[in-house]
């Protein structure tokens, strides 16, 4: 076990700068228009703020490529694109508290995928409510070959957030 196993975590939402750019250009990075929908029920996981939407909030479903956003090289075949909900209007984003968002850990089983710095997948674990999501993340990040983790939903496979060493 290296010191990384005991180190802190940094939880990353879609960056504010990326959100600003997407809102101003009016479409996502894959050509889909910025279409407002009113979330009547609430409960859509927002990747800008890392919380569920509230009933009545304006949200947008966009395509997002999280691996491309995480690496400085061409991720090649690992450059996955998928749907994520974000706030329609400018929001404050997520304030990192150094742990997987507790509201989501209570209800959302996740896959923690471990990536190398080139964007290739190296490892992964499944966590379910009741597990210690942060301990699982630290364990994966204790491998110095791992650069970052992506949490994804288990059934739909959608990207939720990024986990880095603090
Ligand atoms: Zn937001």
Automatic annotation (TrEMBL):
Lineage here is:
Bacteria, Bacillati, Actinomycetota, Actinomycetes, Mycobacteriales
According to UniProt, the name of this protein is DUF1203 domain-containing protein
**InterPro entries, per database record:** DUF1203
Originating organism: Nocardia iowensis
Domain of life the protein comes from: Bacteria
């Amino acid at each position: 076990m290296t010191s990384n196993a005991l180190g802190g975590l940094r939880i990353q939402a879609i960056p504010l700068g990326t959100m600003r750019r997407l809102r101003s250009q009016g479409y996502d990075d894959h050509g889909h228009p910025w279409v407002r929908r009113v979330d009547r029920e609430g409960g859509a996981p927002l990747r800008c703020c890392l919380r569920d939407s509230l009933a009545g909030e304006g949200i947008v479903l966009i395509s997002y490529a999280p691996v491309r956003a995480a690496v400085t090289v061409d991720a090649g075949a690992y450059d996955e694109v998928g749907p994520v909900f974000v706030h329609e209007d400018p929001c404050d984003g997520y304030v990192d508290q150094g742990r997987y968002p507790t509201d989501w850990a209570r209800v959302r089983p996740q896959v923690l995928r471990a990536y190398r710095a080139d964007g290739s997948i190296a490892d992964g674990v499944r966590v379910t409510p009741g597990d210690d999501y942060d301990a699982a993340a630290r364990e994966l990040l204790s491998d110095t070959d791992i650069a970052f983790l992506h949490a994804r939903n288990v059934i739909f496979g959608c990207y939720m957030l990024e986990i880095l060493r603090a």
